[in-house]
Specification:
The chain is mostly helical and about 300 residues long. It folds into 2 domains: about 80 residues; about 210 residues, MetI-like fold (Orthogonal Bundle). It is about 85% helix and about 0% strand.
């Protein structure tokens, strides 16, 4: 009788435990379902509100700067000819665009920029990677790069004008030369920053030098290379605007800006500056950000 009672009590305990486990499982499934619904709702809300919030966040600095500009322009602190309001700049921008003057200047500048920057990108990445992989190349080239990089780009302009003469050749050559320095520096730094454990692991798995360079060195150095390309593009813009006036080219945004300065056409100068900003913004969004998304972001090295 005692053993039967013990067995019955054990059976009741097992049944209670099974019921408790079943209740916990049902509760867990219910909570997971609720979490999934909340997550789906959050994703849907983020997808719906994300573009609007991003657009508002990106537009906010421009709205603040525009409001400050309008306040100063209408306060009379400067003559209207020297500090025109935004509506005057917009009217000049539209007039020059419709007449075809502004697109012509912008197209000539873009051609020179792309030609010079492409040469700088190819040469700068190649030299920087070679310096990072070869100690002998680093010892030879690093002092030359360290000496040449701090010199302002316009200081080289008279030499390039003497060597290549006025015109597009000197402008493109100077843009390529000046913008190559930050690309070389960052490419070299990126290669040197690749962790030794990655290299040793690749060698341990049987990777040869070709595969090591393609699958370890280039992906590891790519964030630095992209930073160098961005800095090189900024250098290219700065030197190109100046050299377009000094090189006596007939068209170009730099020529437009400096020419408008002689006649005190501040609205024309600002219209040219706006075009430069728009071109730079377009290159950043359509080239660099997409390249990052396709490489380092997809590889998990950066977060978008």
């Amino acid at each position: 009788m005692l053993s039967a009672a013990v067995l019955a009590q054990g059976a009741d305990t097992a049944t209670a435990r099974d019921d408790l486990e079943t209740a916990c499982w049902v509760r867990h499934r219910s909570l997971m379902h609720d979490v999934a619904e909340v997550s789906d709702f959050a994703v849907t809300a983020r997808t719906a509100d994300g573009p609007l919030r991003r657009a508002a966040r990106n537009a906010f600095p421009f709205i603040v700067v525009g409001a400050l500009w309008e306040t100063v322009a209408h306060a009379g602190l400067f003559p209207a000819r020297f500090f025109p309001p935004l509506e005057a700049i917009a009217a000049t921008f539209a007039r020059l665009t419709v007449s075809g003057v502004l697109p012509h200047h912008a197209l000539d500048t873009i051609v020179r920029l792309i030609a010079g920057f492409a040469l700088a990108a190819v040469f700068g990445v190649a030299v920087g990677v070679m310096m990072g992989r070869s100690r002998r190349a680093e010892d030879i080239l690093l002092p030359l790069v360290s000496i040449g990089a701090p010199i302002p780009g316009l200081a080289y302009a008279p030499l390039f004008l003497l060597w290549f003469g006025p015109g597009n050749v000197s402008a493109v050559a100077l843009v390529a030369f000046v913008s190559a320095f930050p690309i070389i520096y960052n490419s070299w730094t990126g290669v040197k920053a690749v962790k030794d454990i990655w290299v040793r692991s690749a060698h341990a798995m049987g990777a040869d030098d070709r595969r090591l360079f393609r699958h370890v060195i280039v992906p590891g150095a790519l964030p630095y290379i992209l930073t160098g390309l961005r800095l090189g593009l900024a250098q290219a813009w700065r030197i190109l605007v100046g050299i377009e006036m000094l090189a006596a080219v007939p068209w170009g945004l730099g020529w437009l800006i400096f020419g408008a300065q002689e006649f005190l056409n501040t609205d024309v100068m600002l219209a040219g500056i706006v075009v430069i900003a728009l071109i730079g913004f377009t290159l950043e969004k359509l080239v660099f950000q997409r390249l990052e998304q396709f490489t380092v972001v997809r590889w998990g090295m950066f977060t978008s």
